[in-house]
């Protein structure tokens, strides 16, 4: 038996055990080495997702079968081009694959930011991921968990930007979401 297939199967079996306790499952955005044929970082996490196959599909089929919500833990912030190049990372490509695979299987999809963001550009990246304007099926996150900053960094937050983000997520601000 292929060790990579076994690892992926083990991950799916662990998910089944988790269903007994939870109604949502978090899937992290493991985007480094995504531009390689093997997607080595995802392999390390148990996702057999090489370039020629959708490794999230079997996991999402199990989630759908048990009516579990997928909570996609995404970055929200732009990783610098140099960091992306060095890590062969593609956060947007991975997000597109994960979200479309989940939505195509009829899953309820939610999101959560992994890194804090305080400026409009970061907020608007989250809004575009949560409510893609280019999706003809108008699919979107059912909810979004915003990780709040600690009291030590709250002085760096521009509350007018946070207000803009919240209104954008609720659909109160439409049109051009660019900073």
Describe the structure.
The chain has 179 residues and is α/β, with parallel strands linked by helices. Helix content is 42%, strand content 10%. The chain has helices at 3-19, 40-45, 57-65, 81-87, 91-104, 120-130, 159-169, and strands at residues 24-28, 69-74, 109-113, 144-145. Helix 6 (120-130) links the parallel strand 3 and strand 4. The termini are far apart. The mean pLDDT is 75. GO terms for molecular function: beta-amylase activity. Belongs to the glycosyl hydrolase 14 family. It comes from Quercus rubra (Northern red oak). This is Beta-amylase.
Distance between the termini: 51 Å
**Percent of residues in beta strands?**
5-15%
Shape: globular
Largest sheet, described in full? 4 strands, parallel
Q: How many E-type strands?
A: 4
* Average pLDDT reading: 75
Runs in which pLDDT lies below 50 for 5 or more consecutive residues are none
| Strand/helix succession | HEHHEHHEHEH
Which homologous superfamily in CATH is the superfamily?
Glycosidases
CATH architectural arrangement: Alpha-Beta Barrel
What is the structural class?
alpha/beta
CATH topology-level name: TIM Barrel
C-alpha Rg (nearest Å) = 17 Å
**Taking strands numbered 1, 2, ... along the chain, how are they ordered across the largest sheet?**
1-2-3-4
At a glance:
With 179 residues, the chain is an alpha/beta fold. Helix content is 42%, strand content 10%. The protein has one domain: Glycosidases (TIM Barrel).
